[in-house]
Each structure stands twice: as C-alpha cells, then as structure tokens.
Amino acid sequence: MAAMSFAKTPGRNRLGGSGRRKVDSPKKPVPSVVTRAPAILTAKRGTAPSVQPVARPVTRQTVARVLRILRNAAPQWNAPVLTLMAVEKRDPFLTLIGCILSLRTRDEATAVAAPRLFERADTPSRMLELTPAEIECLIYPVGFYRTKARVIHQICHELIERFGGRVPERIEDLLSLKGVGRKTANLVITQAFGKPGICVDTHVHRISNRWGLVHTRSPSESEQALREVLPRRYWIEYNSLLVAFGQTLCQPVSPWCSRCPINHLCPRIGVVRCR
Ligand code: SF4
C-alpha cells in the first residue's frame, strides 16, 4: 500500500525527489503559531473547519501566554466555580465539602447547593448538628445527594475524632478520609492551603488535551503529565482558571471557539464540533 501511494505522488521519482535539480534555499524559521486566520472565524456555525488545526500545540514555553490571556478574561465569564470559590473564601472545610458536592454534579447545581448548606453548617461540629436526612434536603439536587450526605457526616466525625476538628494539610491525611480522592485532596491543598499541587478534574483534563499540552486518557494521567510540563508557579491557579473556562467557553461537546480569546493559540485537538 505504501508503494502505491508513493507512485501516485505527482512529480516524484523513486528516490522521492522531484526530478529537477534542487536549489538550496535558506530554511524559513517556523513560527510558534500559525499566523493565518483561524478557519473558524470564516466558517459557518458548526461546520468542519473547526477540526482543522490552526495553531501548534501549547507547550511549557507558550502556556504562560495562554494563561495570561485567560486570567485577564476570566472576570467577564461569570462562571459557577468562581461563585463557589467566593462562598468558600479559602476555608479548608468549605473547600473540602464544596468539592465533594461538586463530584459528578453540574456546576450550576453545586453553586446553588453549597451556599445553602454552608449557611446552616460551616464547621464540622455544626454539620454534625444536622442529620444526614437534613443534609440531603439542603444539598438536593446535587448528584448522589443521599450518598454525599452520609459521606459528609462521616467526614465530619473523622475530622473531629482524628484531626481535632480541623482539615489536615497533608495530602496523605486527606486521602485517608472516606470519600476523599486525589481531585478533592489536591483542590483543598491548592485552594485552601495555597500549597503546590495540580487538581485535575474533567475540565482540566479535557482542555489540557485540546491544547496539546498533554496527551492523556484520564485525569490521573493528566495530573502526572502536567506535573512534568506545567511550570510550578501556575499549579495553584490552573484548576480554577480552566474550570471557569470550561464551564463557560471551552465546553465539553461544542466549545465556543468563535468567542474564545485564545483561539489563535489553540490547535483544538479532538474538537469535532464547535460554535
Ligand atoms: S474554546 Fe476552542 S479555541 Fe478555545 S481553547 Fe477551547 S477548543 Fe481551543
């Protein structure tokens, strides 16, 4: 098959040359970004040009520029995650419980349920004054609200019995709490304690792959890959910035590439439909 396709190449000889004397010319430097206008800007809504790569993959060297643009644009997005973070106010307990509420739940639902719960109970001891059934009512309709109500109750028990009512700062201690996984533990470490860590959820995983910054199949693979490629100074803000971006513009099924402030820097890897 390879020979057939080779033979069909117009103007080529067996050695792969053109048959004409080759004239040496100085190689042009390859720009880090392809400068032609992104096809999406001229394409009809939802049509094929969205899958045409228009930029090179984002790299360790260019990610700073991408993040700077997103940081400047973020205040206009009105994203649910930013609302939630304002409610949590960098309190470790609220961050921990807010993250548990957000698991497998639409961001809009979490942004409503979390403030309603925190108004009644913003410490482990106050949370234990509520029954699991009362917590259920307060957090409905987040996903798995019955299970989460029991998990929250159990976590509050453990925090009081094992950690003196405080949320531990070590990732190993956080992971020892029933119902706390790597995403939740990393979020508490970075957002509440300001320690380095990369919290990778579905938004961070998806967008990092669309940029070509990583090439991974799962959030846990992305966390490891990002630890290699993402400069440490961006670790803490990376999650909240990309979650807000993913909630509003770089959405899962059909991202808003035509409105995206970094569409000239994004190769849109794996995007098959966009707006
Ligand atoms: S919205 Fe489109 S152009 Fe912007 S980062 Fe996402 S895939 Fe890339």
Describe what is shown at a glance:
This protein has 275 residues and is mainly α.
User: Count the helices. How many?
Assistant: 14
Question: In angstroms, what separates the terminal alpha carbons?
Answer: 38 Å
Q: State Rg.
A: 24 Å
CATH-level-2 architecture of the largest domain: Orthogonal Bundle
Bound molecule kinds, no repeats: iron/sulfur cluster
Q: How are helices and strands ordered from N to C?
A: HHHHHHHHHHHHHH
Structural class: mainly alpha
Number of structurally distinct domains: 2
In CATH, what is the class of the largest domain?
Mainly Alpha
Strand portion: under 5%
The CATH fourth-level homologous superfamily of the largest domain: Hypothetical protein, domain 2
Q: How many strands, which pairing sense, and closed or not: the largest β-sheet?
A: none
| Coarse morphology | globular
Please give a structural write-up:
This protein folds into two domains: 48-75 and 198-259, Endonuclease Iii, domain 2; 80-192, Orthogonal Bundle (Endonuclease III, domain 1), CATH 1.10.340.30. The chain is 50% helix and 0% strand. The protein has helices at 2-8, 39-42, 63-73, 80-88, 92-102, 107-120, 124-128, 132-139, 145-163, 171-175, 182-192, 202-210, 219-229, 235-248. The radius of gyration is 24 Å and the shape is globular. The two termini are 38 Å apart. Residues 1-51 have low confidence and may be disordered. Bound molecules: iron/sulfur cluster. Iron/sulfur cluster binds at residues 210, 249-250, 255-257, 260, 262-263, 266, 268, 271, 274.
